[in-house]
């Protein structure tokens, strides 16, 4: 793995979308609501309802672009999307869910502590992409695993445009053939997983802080 390349990718992502520092700079009651939302997704694998959370901290989290609330009142929280996206994730126990972007999808087995299957399509040639991923980062068929491209990092997140409708659309999977032809920032699966786990690791720490244990899915 190329440590410098991964670190640059991670730092670019954190600069464009400083989710961790936004959440961790909030007072504890807001952090707690955030942790409850993540825990709900981890335990139930479907979106929590906005009506079940106190309005002020929830709106604060929305303002920070830490959560996205659909018109139907469903709460999406990176990496989990309440809306359909081109990246479907399943664990074989629940109905499949959607990830906000490719880097987000790679964090899900780690948060669920369960193996998953990811279904998507190559962004460039649309060939179907489907493979399994373990929480410890092993992929049973790493050879055929897709690449992750991280583009369009142009600083337009938060107030101007939530990451889920801006930044995330530029972070996608590519098949091996298409990845070979590109000069933009491309990461093989293991490098992308490193970026993903470094980016979302604070969520596990936050769940532990409020004693919401990760556990296996029910
Ligand atoms: Zn392709």
TrEMBL record:
<protein>
    <recommendedName>
        <fullName>Alkylmercury lyase</fullName>
    </recommendedName>
</protein>
<dbReference type="InterPro" id="IPR004927">
    <property type="entry name" value="MerB"/>
</dbReference>
<dbReference type="InterPro" id="IPR053717">
    <property type="entry name" value="MerB_lyase_sf"/>
</dbReference>
<dbReference type="GO" id="GO:0018836">
    <property type="term" value="F:alkylmercury lyase activity"/>
</dbReference>
<dbReference type="Pfam" id="PF03243">
    <property type="entry name" value="MerB"/>
</dbReference>
């Amino acid at each position: 793995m190329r440590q410098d390349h991964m670190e640059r990718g991670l730092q670019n992502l954190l600069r464009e979308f400083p989710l961790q520092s936004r959440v961790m700079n909030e007072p504890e009651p807001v952090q707690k609501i955030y942790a409850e939302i993540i825990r709900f997704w981890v335990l139930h694998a479907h979106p929590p309802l906005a009506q079940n959370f106190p309005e002020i901290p929830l709106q604060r989290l929305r303002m920070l672009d830490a959560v996205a609330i659909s018109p139907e009142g469903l709460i999406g929280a990176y990496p989990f999307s309440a809306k359909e996206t081109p990246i479907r994730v399943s664990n074989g126990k629940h109905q499949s869910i959607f990830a906000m972007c490719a880097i987000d999808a790679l964090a899900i087995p780690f948060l669920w502590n369960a193996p998953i299957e990811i279904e998507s399509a190559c962004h460039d040639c649309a060939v179907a992409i489907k493979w399994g991923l373990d929480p410890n980062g092993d992929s049973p068929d790493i050879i055929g695993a897709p690449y992750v491209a991280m583009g369009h990092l142009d600083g337009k997140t938060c107030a101007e445009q939530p990451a889920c409708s801006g930044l995330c659309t530029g972070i996608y999977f590519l098949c091996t053939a298409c990845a070979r032809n590109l000069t933009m920032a491309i990461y093989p699966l293991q490098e992308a997983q490193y970026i993903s786990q470094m980016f979302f690791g604070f969520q596990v720490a936050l769940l532990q802080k409020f004693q919401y244990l990760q556990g296996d899915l029910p």
